[in-house]
Amino acid sequence: MALIQWSEKLAVNIPSIDGQHRILVDLVNQLHDAMKAGRSKEVIADVLNRLIDYTKLHFAHEEACMTKSCFAHAKDHKCQHDELASKVLQFQADFSAGKVGLTMEVLNFLQQWLSGHIMKSDKAYSDHLISHHIQ
């Protein structure tokens, strides 16, 4: 069973962003599946790298949309992105150095952060971006 189930409650009704959110959900689920299957550190590292790279791309897209539409809370939203990126990059460094392993605690954090961020912070910009014809 997937760690995160995509549903319409996660939709922000902006096709480009919803599509990216679906990919992020899929990557977190791939990471979860790799851990549950006892895959090698190299396989887990590869999925983690893809998740980090795609998260950077997604955050840049969201931030560009907020800047383009002059969203009033763009700075606060970017700070949330930066905090997550910092935590995940530190985990990646510790994982690569063999200091920590991938655990359900880490996966639950990612699941809760992603779902919570979409449901609260991302939905807060949805109407604004739609009103500015951001798709």
Q: Strand fraction band?
A: under 5%
- Biggest sheet descriptor: none
Proportion of helical residues: over 70%
Outline the low-pLDDT stretches.
Answer: none
Global shape = globular
Order of helices and strands: HHHH
CA-CA gap between termini: 31 Å
Q: What can you see in these coordinates?
A:
It is a single chain. The chain is an all-alpha fold. Helix content is 75%, strand content 0%. The protein has four helices and no strands. The protein has helices at 15-36, 41-68, 74-96, 104-131. It starts with 14 loop residues before the first helix and ends with a helix.
Q: How would you describe this structure in keywords?
A:
135 residues, mainly alpha, single chain
Topology overview:
Blueprint: H1 15-36, H2 41-68, H3 74-96, H4 104-131
Helix pairs in contact: 1-2, 1-4, 2-3
